[in-house]
């Protein structure tokens, strides 16, 4: 099998049901999801398997689910029967967020992204995920999409925020509060 096909040399690519320009909103959305998946892989490579076995397992599952998101966004015609992303995947993210948040110190103010290398990469995942979400919102404003993809990306960025903090907490690195932040988070 050849890795190159030459079919994209004119600036077009195939999606499920059509050929579109490579800068089409659909390609921008799932291309950003693909970029996010690369950063998730980088985060996994930075996580110590002894300290972060649970996180590595969750990130691996997320990598598969990001492929599912891209697949669902590749449909030109609405095809609910073929969608892979579902509400149960969003529910799973919420359960993981709640569990990781139990490990994190209370949060009252905005924090600066950073700390450990793993935390920094997870914050990059968070911001790329937010961009993927914005691209998906733009696509959904013009075309029919699986609405669960949008919900998944929204919750996934919250997951990355939570686990970035957990990465610092487990490695005894304090988050750095933004020095001009008011108290913006309510702890329960």
TrEMBL record:
Pathway as given in its UniProt record: Cofactor biosynthesis; adenosylcobalamin biosynthesis; adenosylcobalamin from cob(II)yrinate a,c-diamide: step 2/7
A Pfam family annotated for this UniProt entry: Cob_adeno_trans
Transferase found in the keyword field: yes
One GO biological process term: cobalamin biosynthetic process
Claim: 4Fe-4S is one of the keywords in the record: no
Catalytic activity: 2 cob(II)yrinate a,c diamide + reduced [electron-transfer flavoprotein] + 2 ATP = 2 adenosylcob(III)yrinate a,c-diamide + 2 triphosphate + oxidized [electron-transfer flavoprotein] + 3 H(+); 2 cob(II)alamin + reduced [electron-transfer flavoprotein] + 2 ATP = 2 adenosylcob(III)alamin + 2 triphosphate + oxidized [electron-transfer flavoprotein] + 3 H(+)
Enzyme Commission code(s) on record: 2.5.1.17
Keywords, in A-Z order: ATP-binding, Cobalamin biosynthesis, Nucleotide-binding, Transferase
Residue ranges annotated for the Cobalamin adenosyltransferase-like domain, each copy included: 3-167
Molecular-function annotations in GO: ATP binding; corrinoid adenosyltransferase activity
Enzyme kind, highest EC tier: transferase
InterPro entries associated with the record: CblAdoTrfase-like (IPR016030), CblAdoTrfase-like_sf (IPR036451), PduO-typ (IPR029499)
Family to which this protein belongs: Belongs to the Cob(I)alamin adenosyltransferase family.
Complex and partners: Homotrimer.
Name by which UniProt lists this protein: Corrinoid adenosyltransferase
